[in-house]
Amino acid sequence: MGRVKLQIKRIENTTNRQVTFSKRRNGLIKKAYELSVLCDVDVALIMFSPSGRLSLFSRNKSIEEILERYVNLPEHERGR
Amino acid sequence: MGRVKLQIKRIENTTNRQVTFSKRRNGLIKKAYELSVLCDVDVALIMFSPSGRLSLFSRNKSIEEILERYVNLPEHERGR
DNA sequence: CTTTCTATCTATAACCA
DNA sequence: TTGGTTATAGATAGAAA
User: Which of A28, A60, B15, B40 is the least crowded, having the fewest Cβ atoms under 10 Å away?
Assistant: First the structure.
């Protein structure tokens, strides 16, 4: 989307990569929020920015609670 | 988006909620994939469907590796 | 529970401030 | 960097299978 069709590959220009990260991270969090509300489900989102900084999303439950729910699944249900 | 503007609140009709989950889950995973490639970052996404089934996303590294990177952060960097 | 079609609503790339 | 603006590419609600 946007003025031009983007190829999905690493953005080499550092500034552009940072700007794109900031914008798309917000978009991704918004989508995760909407999904969690509309469908009333648990969603946990963990991201590390290009500089290594952490970004998180979860609603209702804490990230830790959701991770715990995941870790506590029987092993055969944990594969994708 | 779509034929009508949707209010962001729980979809009460079970069938519609399931259908919306299927569609938006795919959209969210696609966005997470694009962000991870474009910006070359780690993204981990954990979702539980309305029926309790697990959906995961991560690229390059396994979910476990990313969770580990998160858990190993100093506590003061783990808050949002 | 997944998927196709298509009219509409959204997200965002390139700019600009 | 850090946010707006705008033209377009992309996502998706509803209907139906």
Answer: B15
Asked whether A67 and B67 are in contact (CB, 8 A), the reply is yes
Best CATH choice for the domain B14-77 from the list 3.40.1810.10, 3.30.780.10, 3.30.420.10, 3.90.1150.10? 3.40.1810.10
DSSP string spanning A18-66?
Answer: HHHHHHHHHHHHHHHHHHHHHTT--EEEEEE-TTS-EEEE-SSS-HHHH
Q: What is the distance in angstroms between the Cα of A58 and the nearest Cα belonging to chain B?
A: 10
Q: Which of residues 51-80 of B touch strand C (CB under 7 A)?
A: 51, 53
What's the full length of chain A, in residues?
A: 80
Distances from the Cα of B36 to the Cαs of A6, A54, B13, in angstroms? 14, 14, 34
Burial class (CB in 10 A: 0-12, 13-18, 19+), B72: exposed
For A7-60, write each residue's pLDDT tens digit.
Answer: 999 999 999 999 999 999 999 999 999 999 999 999 999 999 888 899 999 998
Greatest extent of chain A over all pairs of C-alpha atoms, in Å: 46
